[in-house]
Write a structure and sequence with these properties.
By secondary structure, the protein is α/β, with parallel strands linked by helices. It has two domains: about 5-45 and about 275-495, Aminopeptidase (3-Layer(aba) Sandwich), CATH 3.40.630.10; about 65-260, 3-Layer(bba) Sandwich (Glucose Oxidase, domain 1), CATH 3.50.30. Helix content is about 30%, strand content about 25%. The protein has twelve helices and 21 strands. The protein has helices spanning about 5-15, 30-45, 150-155, 155-165, 220-225, 230-240, 310-330, 350-355, 395-405, 425-430, 450-460, 475-495, and strands at about 50, 55-80, 85, 90-95, 100-110, 115-120, 120-125, 135-140, 170-175, 190-195, 200, 210-215, 245-275, 285-290, 295-300, 305, 335-340, 365-370, 385, 410, 435-440. It has a 17-stranded mixed beta sheet that branches. It has a two-stranded antiparallel sheet with strand order 6-7. The protein has a two-stranded antiparallel ribbon with strand order 15-16. Helix 2 packs parallel to helix 7 (about 310-330) and helix 9 packs across helix 12. The chain is globular. It binds zinc ion. This is M20/M25/M40 family metallo-hydrolase. Pfam families: Peptidase_M28. InterPro entries: M28_fam (IPR045175), PA_dom_sf (IPR046450), Peptidase_M28 (IPR007484).
C-alpha cells in the first residue's frame, strides 16, 4: 500500500477536471474524453476489458423526457359529479413520463400517509385497497426508523412510487411540505436509462410504472382535507407516530399531460482484474465511481465550467490508483475485481442503475460493491462513515481495514442529507448486492478545530459549483489514506472465503 502515489492521484484529477473536459456531461465530447482517458489508463496497467463483449465500455441509451406544460391538466370530481380543475403550477406539477407520449389516468383518490411499507415495522397500506386508484402521500417518513440508510430509502420518491405501483395504484401524488410552488411555469424534464426496446426505465425517480405521477403542496393537501371529514393536523400528528391513517377521499382525481422524448448514447467503463483462485475468480467485487459531472452551467466569477475535481474526478482517480495497485502490486485478489466508472450519476444514478440491473458479468456472481463518490479529501482522514456497511457482513471488512490504518469508524452525522440513496451504491443495494460508500468522518488532530463547520463551509463554496476545480482545497495525504482504505476493503472481501451476507432479517436483504 506504500506504492499508492499522491502525484499519480493528483495527475488523474488534474486531467479529468481540466476545462477541456467541459464538466464531463454525458452526451458531450467532454464526457467521451474522460471515457477515453480511463480506457487508456486501463490499457497501460493491463486491466482487461469487461464491458460489452470485448469492449471496455458498456453502452446504454439515455432518454430525456420533457413535459409540454400547456398540455397538463388535472381535476378532482366528487360523488355528485361536480368537477374542479386543478391549477398547473399552483396545485400540481407533473413528473415526466418516460414511456407515454400522453400520460393520463383517473381513479378514486386514497390518502396513504407517507406511502411506506416497511416489513415487520409499519405500513401505510395496511387495511386499504389502492388497486386501480390514485394514491396521495407525503414526503418523508414517520418517526422511529433508527437507521439513516432506511430513512433515506423510504423517503425516496422513486421508492414510494414503486411501492404504490406494486400495490396496484395507477397514479400517485407526492405532497411536498411547501405552501406553494416557487415557479409556476418550470421546465419539467427528467432523464432515465432505457433498454433497447424502450420498455424498462432505469433511474432513481419516476420510472413510468404508474399511468401518471404528480407533485403537489401543502395548500393542495389542505383543500383535500377540508372536504374529507378528517382533521389534517390530527392526521399528520398520528402519522408521525406511526398510527396508520390511510383512508379513501370521496373524490376522483384525474390527470393528463404530454411528453416528448429524445435519446442519446452514453457509456459506463468496465475493467477487470481477474481473480487468482480457480473457484473464487468467478465471483466479483465491484469498485464503482461516477465518471460524469454536471457540465456547463451558470457562470460564477466568469467561470461556467463545472469541473467536478472533487465530485467525482477524485473518486475516479482513487479507483484508477486501486486498479494500478491490483495490477502492479503483489496482492493478487482471489475473487475478481471489477472497476466500474459509471455515467449519468448526476442525472439520477442512471449508469449505475443500468449496470447493477444488467451487469456485464453474472449478477449473482457480484458479491459486493464498494462505491466512491467525492471522498472530500480536504483535511487529514482520521475517521470514516461507512454508509450502508451496517446492513451486511462487509462491516467486518470495513472494521479490519479501518483498524489496520488506525481510522475510527463513526455513525452518520447528517442523516437528514439522505446520502445513502444519493449515490451509486444505492443502485447495487436495490438489486440485492451488499454495498457501501465511505464518507469522511469528523475526527481531527488539531485541538479546537471544528471539522464539521469546516466541511460545511467548504461544501457551500465548492459542491456542485464551478469553483470545484484543481485550484480548490486538496489534502493528497488524505487521498492516499482513502485509496488505501478502499483498496483494503475490497481486497479483504476478495480474500474472505465466505461471500458477504446481509445481516439476518435485514430489510435490504429480504427485498
Ligand atoms: Zn458525486
Amino acid at each position: 500500500m506504500d506504492q499508492i502515489d499522491t502525484t499519480t492521484i493528483r495527475n488523474h484529477i488534474a486531467y479529468l477536471a481540466d476545462d477541456r473536459l467541459l464538466g464531463r456531461k454525458p452526451g458531450t465530447e467532454g464526457y467521451q474524453l474522460a471515457v477515453d482517458y480511463v480506457i487508456s489508463e486501463f490499457k497501460k496497467m493491463g486491466v482487461q476489458p469487461a464491458g460489452d463483449p470485448g469492449q471496455f465500455t458498456q453502452k446504454l441509451i439515455l432518454q430525456n423526457t420533457k413535459v409540454d406544460n400547456g398540455s397538463a391538466k388535472a381535476f378532482l370530481s366528487d360523488t355528485k359529479g361536480n368537477v374542479d380543475s386543478l391549477g398547473f403550477g399552483i396545485d400540481f406539477l407533473p413528473y415526466a413520463h418516460p414511456f407515454s407520449e400522453k400520460a393520463s389516468g383517473s381513479g378514486k383518490l386514497v390518502f396513504v400517509g407517507y406511502g411506506v411499507d416497511i416489513p415487520d415495522f409499519y405500513s401505510d397500506y395496511d387495511g386499504i385497497d389502492v388497486s386501480g386508484k390514485v394514491v396521495v402521500f407525503l414526503a418523508g417518513v414517520p418517526d422511529g426508523i433508527s437507521a439513516s440508510t432506511l430513512i433515506s430509502h423510504f423517503s425516496s420518491a422513486g421508492n414510494k412510487m414503486n411501492i404504490a405501483a406494486e400495490k396496484g395504484a395507477i397514479g400517485a401524488v407526492l405532497v411536498y411540505p411547501i405552501n406553494s410552488f416557487p415557479n409556476p411555469n418550470p421546465t419539467i424534464q427528467s432523464t432515465v436509462g432505457v433498454n433497447p426496446e424502450k420498455t424498462v426505465a432505469y433511474s432513481r425517480g419516476f420510472n413510468g410504472n404508474l399511468d401518471f405521477a404528480l407533485t403537489a403542496n401543502n395548500s393542495f393537501l389542505s383543500q383535500l382535507f377540508l372536504n374529507s371529514g378528517k382533521n389534517l393536523t390530527e392526521t399528520l400528528t398520528a402519522l408521525k407516530s406511526r398510527k396508520n391513517s390511510s383512508f379513501e377521499f370521496p373524490f376522483i382525481l384525474g390527470a393528463s399531460y404530454s411528453n416528448s422524448f429524445s435519446q442519446f448514447e452514453s457509456e459506463n467503463v468496465v475493467g477487470l482484474i481477474p481473480g487468482s483462485d480457480s473457484r473464487l475468480k468467478n465471483e466479483y467485487v465491484v469498485h464503482s465511481a461516477h465518471l460524469d459531472h454536471v457540465g456547463i452551467g451558470r457562470a460564477v466569477n466568469g467561470d461556467s465550467i463545472y469541473n467536478g475535481a472533487h465530485d467525482n474526478a477524485s473518486g475516479v482517480a482513487s479507483l484508477l490508483e486501486i486498479a494500478r495497485i491490483y495490477t502492479k502490486g503483489k496482492a493478487k485478489p482471489k475473487r475478481s475485481v471489477l472497476i466500474v466508472l459509471v455515467t449519468a450519476e448526476e442525472m439520477g444514478l442512471i449508469g449505475s442503475a443500468y449496470f447493477a440491473s444488467n451487469p456485464t458479468v453474472l449478477k449473482s456472481a457480484i458479491v459486493a460493491n464498494v462505491n466512491t463518490d467525492m471522498p472530500t479529501v480536504i483535511a487529514p482522514l482520521l475517521s470514516i462513515v461507512p454508509l450502508g456497511a451496517e446492513h451486511s457482513s462487509i462491516m467486518n471488512n470495513v472494521k479490519f481495514a479501518a483498524d489496520y490504518l488506525g481510522l475510527e469508524v463513526e455513525g452518520d452525522p447528517e442523516p437528514e442529507q439522505n446520502r445513502f440513496v444519493r449515490s451509486d451504491q444505492y443502485s447495487f443495494v436495490v438489486n440485492g448486492i451488499p454495498a457501501l460508500h465511505i464518507k469522511y468522518g469528523n475526527k481531527t488532530n488539531v485541538p479546537g478545530f471544528d471539522m464539521d463547520a469546516f466541511i460545511k463551509t467548504w461544501r457551500a463554496k465548492y459542491y456542485h459549483q464551478s469553483a470545484d476545480g484543481m485550484d480548490g482545497i486538496f489534502d493528497f495525504g488524505a487521498a492516499k489514506t482513502y485509496v488505501q482504505l478502499n483498496f483494503l476493503i475490497s481486497y479483504s472481501i476478495a480474500q474472505t472465503a465466505a461471500r458477504p451476507e446481509w445481516n439476518e432479517g435485514d430489510l435490504f436483504g429480504i427485498k
